[in-house]
Write a structure and sequence with these properties.
The protein is mostly helical. 65% of the residues lie in helices and 0% in strands. α4 crosses α5, α8 packs across α9 and α8 packs across α10.
């Protein structure tokens, strides 16, 4: 078994420690494991593929350089989520708010296995999310779209758990009229499989 094969077996924390100790390949394995999920978070946060790509690149560079700042109080994935979310928010705050969903994004958001109706629903959810305040949109993206716990989302967003709960509740309630629904959903608002959600 090669040294690279050994890296595949290491948990994230050990990989990060190995990176901090000078292993030239350890961070590459962290990137390989988590890039797709971080990309999904960035895309649902920014609603712009180009901005999402830039934000993920910036976030992984920051994580590479600041790996020694990881204190181990949360999972490595939670730490990465926080860096990605902050990178996205920094970029969004430097640009004008985007109204609506550009046509170019539809191919990215639609799953080729979805039926036409499912695609329409997914796009409706994306548009509705875009109309929510940033805090609500982020809470819904992390909790309803990516299945993170309230505690994980609170750690990523650096707010109290109660704040995440209230943002999710307010965001779901706000989604009801935006999606043309008649009553508040009992469960997380997601469009078919998994859809992007929001946070204030």
């Amino acid at each position: 078994m090669s040294r690279l094969d050994d890296l595949l077996e290491l948990p994230d924390r050990d990989l990060l420690s190995a990176h901090c100790a000078g292993d030239p390949d350890a961070f590459g394995e962290i990137f390989r494991r988590h890039r797709d999920r971080m990309w999904a978070v960035a895309l649902r946060t920014t609603r712009d593929p180009e901005m999402a790509a830039d934000a993920v690149q910036d976030a992984f560079i920051a994580a590479f350089r600041r790996a020694d700042s990881f204190r181990g109080e949360a999972a490595v994935t939670t730490w990465l989520h926080r860096i990605v979310v902050n990178s996205c928010l920094d970029r969004l705050r430097r640009t004008k708010p985007v109204v609506g969903l550009p046509d170019a994004d539809q191919g990215v958001l639609a799953d080729s296995h979805d039926h036409h109706h499912s695609v329409d629903v997914r796009l409706d959810v994306q548009r509705a999310l875009g109309q929510l305040p940033e805090g609500q949109r982020m809470a819904l993206v992390l909790v309803d779209m990516h299945g993170l716990s309230i505690a994980e989302a609170a750690s990523i967003l650096d707010v109290a758990e109660g704040t995440v709960k209230s943002r999710c509740a307010r965001g779901r309630a706000a989604m009801v009229p935006l999606l043309g629904l008649s009553a508040p959903p009992e469960s997380p608002v997601s469009s078919t499989p998994k859809e992007p959600m929001a946070s204030p």
